[in-house]
């Protein structure tokens, strides 16, 4: 990893313009006069030695679902200097609370409606991680900035996403067409935050218009700008307009980060070539890193199996969600999914099952048990009571929560902590509700009835059969799953499903 303070002088590098001689060109200085910063007494800007420098950096680009903590840490281990998070939408972060996770050694931003981890970070990446947000509103963006500014190195605004969801919401590339709003957002952040602020844009069809809009954005006092050399309508197969990026780099006096070169990047040397062709001191890599993140190694690519193993160890160590891990490994395997091992992988559902394929199954299981013993609140422990209390404590770990009894049989309700894992029931006939209905018909009993309560985005169902009530103490993310969970408790209690089977398949821990 390059040290933060090793800013190479811009002179001698192609591009990077002339600009304001009074400002360091590495983006590490405070914002220019008139754009806020310490002068207006709002954000207390970090001293230059602590501010992230964007000169001569090799960067992991923001990638939805790919840029989560294990991938970012692996990119840093392999030599990336800066790592961007996936884009997170402002309102999602605003409905989260900050939790110090003393079991994993992480800071978690937890969705207060369903307990999902919206953003997980840790001290190892603190000086290198840039949180990218999607926003269309200066006030919301600033609130997010305030929420995270002590936990990240910088904040980035996505102004390049062409997806319908973003554009319809006035976010992403829509901001390139609404410069006034884009400038308001950047000004609010530059003026109000201690950490550097950047944005990532796409080029416009016209090179001069691209330079003009980037210049206007740079004048807000941002520390750097990422430029993807494709227009909003161009797709990855189109050639990247490196000469447009070059023109921007020549015109601006802040670091420009070149992006869009992955099609031509298959080894470390290609990164330098892209850097030269685009006239920028820094480059940002997305797909080439998604496929094999060891692209950041100066010594050369590692075999994919070695990369996957390292990635899985980090996924386990940071309790990364199984489906996110599967998505990332799938994007590494690509055509290898057709191999026997790839097919085995496609069938795997849980993190442990994925790890088993790379001989890390027992490592995963042992670590998970360790975490549970140390009090890690996993998906199964999330219930409205926990979220309400944690949200009001702001994740203060000093207060330990008293969780309800997991497996209790009272006269009123038979309760077990059973997770409904959809993948275990391939056909409708296998579903717990279907099986329970068939059983009640055989026994000539009344139809099972379900009463479901919703709190936030969590659901819990109480099932009544033959005047007896059954429920799972695990809150599910939708009504159907909550009902299936209650039916599973009932089937188990009636001896129609074996408890040992539920333990073996992971429904009961
Ligand atoms: C899986 C995936 C997810 C992406 N998600 C984001 C994102 O969250 N924010 C963003 O600004 N760009 C996102 N992008 C675009 C990349 O950051 C980058 O601009 C683009 O892939 C071109 O760079 P490359 O040639 O190095 O892949 C994504 C790209 C991919 C492949």
UniProtKB/TrEMBL annotation:
Q: Cite the CDD domains for this sequence.
A: DSRM_DUS2L (cd19871), DUS_like_FMN (cd02801)
> What's a single GO BP term from this record?
regulation of gene expression
Q: Which SMART domains match?
A: DSRM
Listed Pfam families: dsrm (PF00035), Dus (PF01207)
Gene3D superfamilies in alphabetical order: 3.30.160.20, Aldolase class I
Region feature (Disordered) = 1-48
> Which sequence ranges form a coiled-coil region, renumbered to this chain?
none
Gene Ontology cellular component? Answer: cytoplasm
Q: Where is the DRBM domain?
A: 432-495
Recorded GO molecular functions are: tRNA binding; tRNA dihydrouridine synthase activity
Q: What is the protein's name according to its record?
A: DRBM domain-containing protein
Organism the protein comes from: Megalurothrips usitatus
